[in-house]
Design a protein that fits this description.
two-stranded antiparallel ribbon, 7 strands, globular, mainly beta, 3-stranded antiparallel β-sheet, 1 helix
Amino acid sequence: MFYCSTEATMLSPDEVARLERLPDAANTVPEELECDLEDGHDGAHVALGQSQEHSAEEQTLWWLRWTNEGERVWTHEPMCPAERGDDVCLLATGHVSGHHWG
């Protein structure tokens, strides 16, 4: 799969700080996010900003959705349930375009 070729979106210092201060935050948040969808996809761009690992069975995923027109919204959606052998899709449930296997 070829990933989206749109320019990465910059996070504000406040967004980075808020995501890193979340309880049970699992990742270091980068200053910019690249779209995780397939190149040529329809609709908004999507990237995972942070994962809160509350327990082995419970997590909250922070996805940023943005458009080329400047609209931005943070959402909480579970991971796509698709599996291929030992690989799972690393995108949000209901994503457009092909799966991102990992």
